[in-house]
Design a protein that fits this description.
By secondary structure, the chain is mainly alpha-helical. Strands 1-3-2 form a three-stranded mixed β-sheet. A hairpin with a 4-residue loop joins strand 2 and strand 3. Helix 4 crosses helix 13.
């Protein structure tokens, strides 16, 4: 399973359509709960992010260090939310959750041995192992480095700790990815989405990993989205190209499923008669 798969996307689209149809009869809390359930359902193949609603500056965000998805709360409280704003809320949830899947796939690929941490020597891997490890284990790890082997081979606990530190994600995410590591080959062998820039899915995941590895990534991301940074720089980042690509596809499908999609109707509120009770 993956957010890019038809069955997963169509399931979320159906949940969004149900939320739109019932919007007028639901309280803000019930709307939030419905969207949170939809996110949990579509991420059954990975560790689902915690979904929260807050007064964020943009539409939403994803924090990989806390594995938390934040959605702008004010829109969930609007009985007269505009059609296009509702679709934006749904597509934002999908976009930001895609970032969670990107980190999960990187962890899964590393656990499966299909990916290799960039610019990380064996000695650095040993140093990143928890200091609570036994002396015997650390000596064995150094001996593995000297002989050209991976010091994490055969030590599942150390491997998950190192990957969690490398990606700055909760260790439970990596542990889940490790348990499901055999499915990484299924993911990379599936049909490649049209919006991927690289020749293969494995190359695409490698690009996500290299982008997240850059220490200045968060600063670059913030600058590129700001008034002093060109949006194109932000949009062309590997992980953003993917998240926007999947978001664009989802938006089209939500509009089609909810119906009444015209340029004029997109500007109308949910309370307009054209959308029914």
């Amino acid at each position: 399973m993956s957010l890019q798969f038809e069955s997963v996307m169509n399931g979320f689209v159906g949940d969004c359509a149900a939320l739109w149809n019932g919007w007028k009869t639901l309280s803000p809390v019930q709307r939030e709960a419905a969207l949170a359930r939809a996110v949990t359902r579509m991420t059954s193949f990975m560790q689902a992010p915690t979904v929260t609603f807050a007064n964020v500056s943009g539409w939403g965000s994803f924090s990989w260090s806390s594995w938390t998805l934040k959605i702008k709360r004010s829109y969930m409280a609007k009985n007269d939310i505009r059609y296009k704003d509702f679709v934006e809320v749904c597509s934002t949830a999908y976009h930001e959750t895609r970032h969670a899947e990107q980190f999960y796939r990187i962890a899964q690929g590393l656990c499966a041995g299909a990916l290799k941490m960039p610019d990380t020597s064996g000695a650095q891997l040993v140093q990143s192992m928890a200091p609570s490890g036994s002396v015997r284990a650390r000596v064995a790890a150094y001996q593995a480095v000297i002989s050209g082997q991976n010091p994490l081979d055969g030590d599942a606990a150390a491997k998950t700790r190192v990957i969690a530190n490398f990606l700055n994600v909760p260790i439970s995410v990596v542990q889940h990815a490790d348990r499901m590591r055999d499915y990484f080959s299924n993911y990379v062998s599936a049909t490649k989405p049209a919006w991927f820039k690289r020749a293969t899915t494995l190359d695409e995941v490698n690009e996500w990993m290299r982008a997240t590895y850059k220490k200045t990534y968060s600063e670059l991301d913030g600058w590129a989205q700001g008034p002093d940074g060109p949006y194109k720089v932000y949009r062309d980042l590997p992980e953003e190209n993917d998240a926007h690509g999947i978001e664009d596809v989802l938006q089209v499908r939500v509009y089609m499923r909810c119906g009444n999609d015209t340029p004029a109707n997109r500007k109308k509120p949910r309370t307009d008669a054209v959308f029914g009770p």
